[in-house]
Amino acid sequence: MNSTVASEYSSEIHTTPIEHRFNPYSDNGGTVLGIAGKDFAVLAGDTRQVEGYSINSRYEQKIFNVGDDIVMTANGFAADGSALIDRFRNQLKWYKFDHNNKKLSVASSARYIRHLLYSKRFFPYYVSTLIAGLDDEGKGCVYSFDPVGSYEREQCRAGGAAASLIMPFLDNQVNFKNQYQPGSDGTEKKPLRYLELDEVLELVKDAFSSATERHIQVGDGLEIFIVTKEGVRTEYYPLKRD
Amino acid sequence: MAGLSFDNFQRNKFLVSKGFGQPMATSTGTTIVGCKFNGGVIIAADTRATAGSIVADKNCEKLHRLSPKIWCAGAGTAADTEMVTQLIASNLELHSLSQRRQPRVITALTLLKQHLFKYQGHLGAYLIVAGNDPTGAHLMSVQAHGSTDIGEYQSLGSGSLAAMAVLETGWKPNMTKEEAMKLCADAIESGIWNDLGSGSNVDLCVMEVGKDAELHRNYLTPNVRSEKLKSYKFDRGTTAVLRSSIHDVLDVEETVITFGNDAMEVDA
Amino acid sequence: MVTVRSESNLKNATMNHDPFAWGRPDDNVYGKYNQSIAQAKNNELDAFPKMHTQQPIITGTSVLGIKYKNGIIMAADNIGSYGSLLRFSNIERIIKVGSETVVGVSGDISDFQQLERILEELVISEENYDNQGENNLRAPHVHEYLTRVLYNRRNKMNPLWNSIIVGGFDNDKTPFLKYIDLLGVTYGSSTLATGFGSYLAIPLLRKLIPDDKDYSNIEEEDAKKVIQECMRVLFYRDARSGEKFTLVTVNDEGVKFEKDVEVTGQSWEFAKNLVGYGSKQL
């Protein structure tokens, strides 16, 4: 038949209509967030994996350095998340092999990931995907994707279970939404500025400790990936375990 | 007429058909336990209330008083455990007044099960009932459909399996009060750490024969929130004041009236 | 067969829009297609029996796994249930794969036996390709392979109805313990359990090892003691569990199977004063 180990389903007739009640998805909780700075970007996520009311693991890595100083996460249904990341990492390897080790830009990565997602338009990867890195000018960048490949570059984005808790906080604290210049009587918006790395890290830690307080699927640990021109480094902080 | 009103039943079905979801009741996730010891009984609960996957209350009370020496721990729909518990507490008091006897745990259990059975499980109350009465210390539980159970140790709620694992390994006959308190607290903690529906603190109530029941509110607090790293105080004026007007809504007047030398007795 | 189309905007359509005959000439325009021409009818397909909702038939309950300082320990009982019928009591659900890896399977037993065959084929092909013994087939490889098998089957909407724990050693010789299920979801931890074990055993296992990294302080006998405790609680409280189980130890001395281990230390003392379900009844 074939030279690799014969898997029994190669000989299946798969065009037969089969009636199923099998649900191919589950929700593994967790939350992620990305923030872009002037010359850095961070991708952070909690390390808890859940199913129903149970904790599968208190530490399961879900943010990865996929190569070329690009960090990636796909939060939601864990099996789809790792499948998507594995596929991208694999394709990135082939790209470099085929193109004399050329560096893949974050923008091109984002466009490729859209195609990976849209290729399963009618059986989607059930994940919110984020990638972060530095753009061609060395500025921090974050790209966020919906499950079927709609994407956009943003200054910050939260994804996953507690996204609805964290995103308004980020709008207010990173993009200064709903903040006006004191004394201007609401006529002048608070001017935008790039946040420093230590400010961003404080925001990230406060966002996650707060999400842990109010969302049952968030907790155990916080892993932060930081991309600078020096490369990628990670930090870990414990979160509450209840 | 006493009882529940089904006036809005049709309206709610109509709303659901139009795509408006049923309002969600808080808390199905909970860990509650009870355990007997030599000379009394203990019940304990966690303090997390949830609405779906959101924590609605981080320090709620799930230990309810049915009578001074009979307490119960409630899991299930928060409103149901609260209301059913208050109703039975009232009926228990009236019953004990008319009979001129101390209320008994079996009476509380029977009132609860008959009430819950009548509602065929639509009242989502899952209770562990415990206390002492002239016949001794008792530990019982009742489920939403009206079935009851007795045992030396019990657990209920989404964390009941996590708690039961600890009870099954830690329980022994004729425990002291301190041993039983530790066992109950450990069982609740097992729910707090391993069940997402349970969390925050441990509440505990000890009912010793011949003594008043003691409620240990927040007996353990293993989940104190760490300090936030940043201050989120906004400068005054960050939120625009679009319009302001000040109204005097009432005038406060104070008059001092002096009586004779001996002051009048105002309150008992 | 129902043809799905709207009369108004497909008035001039010459193509069949039925999803099962999409792109075929439209019967309304060209007349009924003669199926007998060129054997256009797929006889094999029509003859294929219709399959119904898949569900596990004969099932095995929890598998437990724990890391300790020298390796891992795994346990699973020997019951094969047919719904609530105790159908078989001699099912061996932990298998050795290669020389230093064990795989414990719960869920559907026929799917488990299929997996057993797939893994056997894997082992044989690995022996053929790599007979130097340097790059042995180790636990992470077996885990990755099983993940792919199960995830591909879920993508075909035809899952292998199992939850699996793989135990052994990582490439750096540290203990390895990871989980996979019918959806392709995976995770690792120092303490793992499938099925009812995830509710009843995990809390006890995590009491011994609260932090994943702390397994390196755990002695073999302490790990075995807590596994015995878990199997006892499962026997008390999981109606599909059995009193005899297989205990497997993987450490630097190799893989050791202990069969027909009994649940010990049972106590039914609580029952002696219990009468009825409320007021005392006779």
Q: What structural class do you assign from the helix and strand content of chain B?
A: alpha+beta
- Highest CATH level, the class of chain B: Alpha Beta
Residue stretches of chain A low in confidence (pLDDT < 50, at least 5 long) are 1-12
Quickly count the domains of chain B. 1
Number-wise, the strands of chain A total 12
Q: Which structural class matches the secondary elements of chain A?
A: alpha+beta
Protein name (chain B): Proteasome subunit beta type-2
Keywords (chain B): Proteasome
Organism (chain C): [Candida] jaroonii
Protein name (chain C): Proteasome subunit beta type-7
Give a verbal description of the structure.
The complex is a heterotrimer of chains A (242), B (268) and C (282). Chain A has 242 residues and is of the alpha+beta class. Chain A is built from four helices and twelve strands. Chain A has a five-stranded antiparallel β-sheet. A five-stranded antiparallel β-sheet of chain A has the order 5-6-7-8-9, covered by helices on one side. A two-stranded antiparallel sheet of chain A has the order 3-4. The longest helix of chain A has 21 residues, at 78-98. By secondary structure, chain B is an alpha+beta fold. Chain B has one domain: Glutamine Phosphoribosylpyrophosphate, subunit 1, domain 1 (4-Layer Sandwich). Chain B has helices at residues 9-17, 78-99, 105-118, 160-170, 177-194, and strands at residues 32-37, 40-46, 49-51, 54-57, 63-67, 70-76, 125-133, 136-142, 148-150, 153-156, 202-208, 214-220. In chain B, the strands form three sheets. Chain B has a five-stranded antiparallel β-sheet, covered by helices on one side. Chain B has a five-stranded antiparallel β-sheet with strand order 5-6-7-8-9, with helices on one face. In chain B, strands 3-4 form a two-stranded antiparallel sheet. In chain B, a hairpin with a 2-residue loop joins strand 5 (63-67) and strand 6. In chain B, helix 2 crosses helix 3 and helix 4 runs antiparallel to helix 5 (177-194). The two termini of chain B are 36 Å apart. In chain B, 46% of the residues are buried. In chain C, the strands form two sheets. In chain C, strands 1, 4, 5, 6, 7, 8, 9 and 10 form an eight-stranded antiparallel β-sheet that branches. Residues 1-11 of chain C have low confidence and may be disordered. The termini of chain C are far apart. Chain C is globular and about 80 Å long. Classes of the chains: A alpha+beta (242), B alpha+beta (268), C alpha+beta (282). Chain A binds chain C through residues 4-9, 12-22, 24-26, 28, 49, 51, 54, 56-60, 77-79, 82-83, 123, and chain C through 44-45, 48, 50-55, 114, 117-118, 121-122, 125, 149, 151-159, 179, 183-189, 198-199, 202, 211-212.
